[in-house]
User: What shape does this take?
Amino acid sequence: MDETPGGLSGISAPGRVAAPDEGVTEQELALAARNHGLPLEALRYDVTPPGLHYVLTHYDIPATDADGWRLTVGGRVRRTLDLDLDALRARPATTRRVTLECAGNGRARLTPRPVSQPWLVEAVGTAEWTGVPLAALLAEAGIADDAVEAVCTGADHGVERGVEQDYRRGLPLSTAADPARDVLVAYEMNGAPLPPQHGSPLRLVVPGWYGMAHVKWLHDITLTATPYTGFQQSVAYRLRQAAEDPGEPVTLIAPRALMVPPGFPDFMSRTRVVRPGPVPLAGRAWSGHGPVTRVEVSEDDGTTWAEAELVPDPAHPWAWTAWRTTWTATPGPHRLTVRATDAAGNAQPLVAEETWNLGGFASNLVQRVEVLCTPDVSAA
Assistant: This one.
């Protein structure tokens, strides 16, 4: 239910952007302590271990019991389904390697900063998800002629901007019911039951879409004859320049490349230290708009670029692509920059202003890595 009981607005502030000199707030730090990103050195793994995969939980991780869990599929269908986990596991299973990215990734680098979960670039991960294709479940239920959207509800419940709600999102049937889109009702992550923070015992996996579409703790799918207009659809996750702007919905992931930070870090600044000479550089790149076709690396903050080698894996079209190159480091400070371009011609911007919006969504500014190249004093 999406309701606004009296008094909730007093504990739930409206969305805002930070003042020019305002630091990260205590509330944002509390969110950052609950929601963690991928340590960038973990980009070395083709498949992210569950404990290193990014996590964004809107409310609380609900207490769930796999033994009693049921998924209902109803609304504008010809036959309502009411399935427990055994019934889902008895159906033909599919496993897909999928890269997930939070729609707010990059928000903390915007100016002015939208006040919310303060992601830098680390809200990403890639896992192998196993479950039942959503298209197969919808075909089994029988889609009514007037159905246009699958509204998916999770068990997480809370308040956002004064609105009490279950987490709920609508997915167009053009995506939900298309077998080629590989949308899954997943019950396993990397070959094991879903961990609590990743949606145990059931979640939606929507390849190519930002994380808000991958509803966790999934228990109901209702087909509707009109598009869903609840909070998470019509208020949150929209690209708008002002509060009164209706905006455009956040959907497919914009291209992004990330680098495994080279060398070793300073504890606080995270500046990397490398030695003079050849330095291998590697990372991952992805896009929801199509395959990544180019990754470029700059050693001078974007003045000049060199193309990296892509290492595509055709067996996993929904997962990130590995890239690699070698940089010849010379003594002194450097700012390494990496950017991706996808098959649709979308490329990462060099300046944050190109992606600024009120919610800080889909901000895919290039990654910049501060590096100090210095001789090995211990060897002298």
